[in-house]
Amino acid sequence: ETPEWVTDGSADKVAAAVLDWALRNNATLYCHWFQPLGSSGLRHGMTGQVQNSMFEFDKQGLPKWSFTASNLLKGETDGSSFLHGKMRATHSAGAYAVLDPTSPIFLRGDTVFIPSCLVSYNGDPLDEKTPLLRAADALSREGKRLLKHLGYEVSGVHANIGLEQELFFVPREAYNRRLDLQMTGRTVLGRDAPRGQELCDHYMAPPSLSSPALSCMQDVQNQAFKLGIPLRTRHREVAPNQYELASLYGTMTTQIDQNLMVMQICEEVAVQHGLAALLQEKPFQGVNGSGKHNNWSIATSDGTNLLNVKQLQATTGTGEIFPVIMAAIVKAVFQHGDLLRLAIACPGNDFRLGACEAPPALVTTHLGDDMTSFLEGYINGSSEPYTAQTKQLDLGVSVLA
């Protein structure tokens, strides 16, 4: 949580532990793993890396395995061939991959993966993660400041997310015949399928034991679990051959890194089952496209969910904090809806609009009747705590409560 660990000797201990862990698992390489700008839908895995061996010779010329704090904290590479928006001068083409301590190191195959940021020679971000961490810093800094004014002192505030990954698994033999699918991720030519999702027969239907899609998802879950990624949910989605995998929620940076790896695993494992994994938003016209629902919340560093009314009130002893948090969120969405949409919905998402698919080109905070009534009452001076209203449904069946 603090940068002092880099210089107080802790980094050396971490590097030594990583080396011991790697060698015990027959891993002899490491890489700084980053997400270059503009890589979505273009490069395999949407990430970049250079895999380096831990083998070297000591001063006496004897072979040894070595992984130091310097190796852990930073890697240097050529930044000239990444998208940079003219932030990199020709005479300073170097780039640095810097360890992101908010996301855990993991091991895959013979390589240790070190989640990292990629910056230019002058410190300009060449990746997607550096701006994300800047936003995380701003959230923590201003969140602490706000809560302190409300009488609740915390050491930090962070975002938790849970990502739901939708995708298509299609026969690879058919995929190999479609150059448009291979090059763009979408079918550009041809007719609509003679049968789509009109009968609603695919959504949450039982995965067939005779289908390679089920065995593929099982392998994806097994490989992900070995990397410390618990994929909790799998099911059929609305469109034919469309599926969803969802992981347990967690901190923002960890969840994003894990989702990147899950998508890469899906693409690789699908090949082994004679399938192709399609991750583009709208591969086929006339049926649903694939989304990535982002279930978002904010919490303090001690684990208090700021959107959980009962937990927040039990921790702080006051009901004054929750409505202020809600007001800040509503104002942020109202004031910065254009930036939110820019960050959330890329142009490919426009193909998904309408029907029961993606939301329209509006970013809103639909609070529901209970929350709206509570906030209106609070504005008018009410001190009643927020309580989600429930009602008993009569299903006409005695054994169903």
UniProtKB/TrEMBL annotation:
Residues 128-401 form the GS catalytic domain. One of its GO terms (molecular function) is glutamine synthetase activity. It holds the Pfam family GSIII_N. It comes from the Eukaryota. PROSITE patterns: GLNA_ATP, GS_CATALYTIC. Belongs to the glutamine synthetase family. This is GS catalytic domain-containing protein. It comes from Spumella elongata. The lineage of its organism: Eukaryota, Sar, Stramenopiles, Ochrophyta, Chrysophyceae.
